[in-house]
Amino acid sequence: MFYLIRHGQADYSEKHTKIYEGVGIDFSPLSPDGIRQIKRTALDPRLKNAELILSSPYTRALHTAAILSKELQKDIAVETDLHEWMANKNYQYNAAHMPDNYKEFMDCKGEYPDGIEREWEDNHRLQTRLTGVLEKYRKYGHVIVVCHGILIHSVAPDHWPENGEIIEYGGDL
């Protein structure tokens, strides 16, 4: 069983300062509310049986995983493919295009309209990326996976997880 957990609420108060521009925004830690969310999540009895915590490399996810690790006394492994959705799957970061690409992704429910591929990462790629990571950890009975809402939504399409929410996933890999 995999326990997919959306990271806690991030603190973006330093946006547009220091290094918090463009991709630097992904260095934002959790907010005080986000820390409280994850401390509450750590109390969920389902997590006690976990053997390992996997985490996205983004700071908000790593901060979440660190809190869970401390509270649950579980080791953390960072999996780079648990990263956030890509507004440009060719790794061409352009902050000006991100809002439009995200809007199009949402309007199209994560599927390319008319079957014409776009620069943004679609649901299929998200699912493939997530399940590729999970496949490596099938041998474990219970694994906590700290990642991002859009990644979780790709395998639980009827639900958008809240910060700190746990979604059980034992689906076909």
UniProtKB/TrEMBL annotation:
Pfam families tied to this protein: His_Phos_1 (PF00300)
Entries under InterPro entries matching the protein: His_Pase_superF_clade-1, His_PPase_superfam, PGM_Phosphatase
Coiled-coil ranges per UniProt: none
Protein name: Histidine phosphatase family protein
Gene Ontology terms, MF aspect: phosphatase activity
Cellular-component GO terms for this entry: cytoplasm
PANTHER family: ADENOSYLCOBALAMIN_ALPHA-RIBAZOLE PHOSPHATASE, BROAD-SPECIFICITY PHOSPHATASE YOR283W-RELATED
Alphabetical list of CDD domains matching this protein: HP_PGM_like
Superkingdom field: Bacteria
Species in which this protein is naturally found: Candidatus Limivivens intestinipullorum
